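can u do me a favor
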């Protein structure tokens, strides 16, 4: 759409958001002519794209990790902008349902209604949640007794105080501030558990520990206040200095919504509707961080402190493996940038790129003149590097590791989600379903070049790897555009390696029921 098609009010609105008219027009183009789906070649598997590190390789990675840790090269980056609405979705359904009794639920459960059975089991186990005492106090302020309400089956009164704004408002709280874990003397949120984790593998020789959380604008003050309230406790307990940052998704990364005819969607006042564009927008936050070696892990993937040994060990192994590869990459680049590059240097660089980094140099590479070979090797090696932990698949919705074909015809390793795949294509669907491993978002990233300069990460994304989803607003359907996912299209042109990690390192809380799993339950006395 040419710029003159926008009204003066449209242009004023875009300027206030930081969205250029050209970018808005580019987004409209995606709705009218969607980019092609991902081209899957085959699933990555152990021995073919996924590394299963031997005990000796694991041990060899640790000195590289320790060297980088002592020098203060690590930062932990935690996407934490999500509200807990999805986590409490089923409880909210019962909260808003027509009045019911415990007997109604029992009859429904006996009749095979899974949700009613799940709900009853959760209410029976409610005392095992870390927020049970807080809920009890909130009810006491209303002259109600939590245990009596449970015995009498007055579940909706409990849910109203737990979930709604007039109570604890848990359904709208940021997930990072929900009490996940109960310890003998304290209750911890995911934000606190990430601080504890970071102490165990991020702190440098000066005991400084760098962690960055991305949060929503509406929850930024609440998250910052929570951190300030617990900071001294954790700094004192672990003898560290917590260097914590918070950032929000920039409005300039919001994307234009359209109607069913792919025309700009407008609200009741006639203003354009721009929506947050998914976790891919966090590439801007990561880029502004200008870190060095960065751990990335989701806010809800935590466990109890006494269960962290395996998680911490594998964080160190992944980070050490990356640091070792990065050191070798930098030495190779230094040789390639020397005044005179020998044929042996070229052979060794090509072998390293192909066999240790899994890079496709193209069939034409061997026929190139030495100067062109050196140019191509410098180009493919001087890119951001990531090592991604993957776990054996167990049916979770989400992405996995695949060999794909890029727009240049080169084979690359990528994390691919179902929304990126044409599942109506029988061959592509079969390849996607044959995946043996799952992406738990357990990444370590090298985001500086061989001279120590931060990469501009925006140059290494695939701008075409967008998602189009259907939403609604005010009872009207709309189509929304999500930017290339942070660990999908936003990192499409990175050097990527997959390493198998133990399943016990992956302990997400997607629904409130997950809090009853062993990974989130302290041993009973």
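np, heres the sequence
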């Amino acid at each position: 759409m040419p710029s003159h098609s926008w009204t003066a009010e449209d242009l004023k609105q875009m300027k206030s958001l930081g969205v250029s008219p050209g970018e808005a027009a580019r987004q409209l183009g995606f709705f009218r002519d969607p980019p092609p789906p991902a081209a899957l070649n085959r699933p990555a598997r152990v021995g073919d794209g996924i590394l299963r590190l031997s005990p000796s390789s694991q041990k060899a990675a640790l000195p590289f990790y320790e060297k980088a840790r002592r020098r203060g090269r690590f930062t932990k980056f935690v996407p934490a902008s999500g509200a807990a609405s999805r986590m409490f979705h089923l409880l909210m359904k019962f909260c808003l349902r027509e009045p019911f009794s415990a007997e109604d639920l029992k009859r429904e459960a006996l009749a095979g209604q899974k949700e009613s059975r799940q709900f009853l089991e959760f209410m029976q186990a409610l005392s095992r949640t870390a927020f049970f005492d807080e809920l009890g106090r909130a009810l006491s302020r209303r002259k109600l007794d939590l245990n009596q309400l449970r015995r009498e089956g007055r579940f909706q009164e409990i849910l109203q105080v737990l979930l709604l704004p007039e109570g604890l408002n848990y359904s709208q709280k940021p997930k990072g501030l929900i009490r996940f874990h109960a310890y003998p003397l304290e209750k911890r949120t995911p934000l606190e558990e990430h601080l504890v984790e970071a102490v165990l593998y991020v702190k440098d020789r000066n005991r400084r520990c760098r962690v960055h959380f991305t949060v929503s604008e509406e929850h930024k003050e609440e998250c910052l206040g929570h951190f300030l309230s617990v900071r001294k406790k954790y700094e004192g307990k672990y003898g560290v200095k917590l260097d914590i940052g918070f950032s929000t998704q920039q409005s300039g990364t919001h994307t234009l919504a359209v109607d069913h005819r792919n025309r700009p969607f407008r609200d009741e006042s006639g203003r354009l509707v721009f929506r947050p564009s998914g976790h891919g927008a966090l590439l801007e936050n990561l880029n502004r961080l200008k870190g060095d070696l960065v751990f990335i892990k989701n806010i809800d993937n935590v466990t109890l402190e006494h269960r962290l040994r395996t998680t911490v060990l594998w964080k160190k192994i992944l980070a050490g493996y990356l640091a070792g590869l990065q050191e070798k990459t930098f030495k190779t680049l230094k040789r390639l940038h020397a005044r005179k590059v020998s044929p042996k240097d070229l052979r060794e660089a090509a072998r390293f790129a192909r066999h240790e980094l899994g890079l496709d140099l193209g069939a034409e590479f061997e026929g190139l003149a030495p100067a062109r070979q050196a140019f191509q090797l410098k180009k493919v090696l001087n890119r951001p590097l990531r090592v991604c932990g993957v776990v054996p698949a167990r049916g979770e919705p989400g992405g996995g590791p695949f060999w794909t074909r890029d727009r240049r015809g080169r084979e690359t390793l990528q994390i691919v989600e179902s929304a990126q795949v044409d599942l109506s294509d029988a061959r592509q669907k079969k390849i996607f379903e044959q995946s043996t491993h799952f992406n738990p978002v357990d990444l370590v990233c090298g985001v500086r070049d061989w001279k120590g300069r931060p990469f501009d990460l925006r140059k290494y994304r695939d701008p075409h790897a967008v998602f189009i989803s259907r939403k609604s607003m005010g009872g009207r359907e709309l189509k929304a555009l999500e930017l290339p996912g942070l660990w999908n299209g936003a990192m499409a042109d990175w050097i990527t390696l997959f390493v198998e990690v133990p399943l016990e390192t992956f302990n997400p809380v997607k629904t409130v029921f997950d809090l009853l799993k062993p990974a989130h339950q302290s041993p009973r006395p």
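Residues 89-163 form one domain. hope that helps!!
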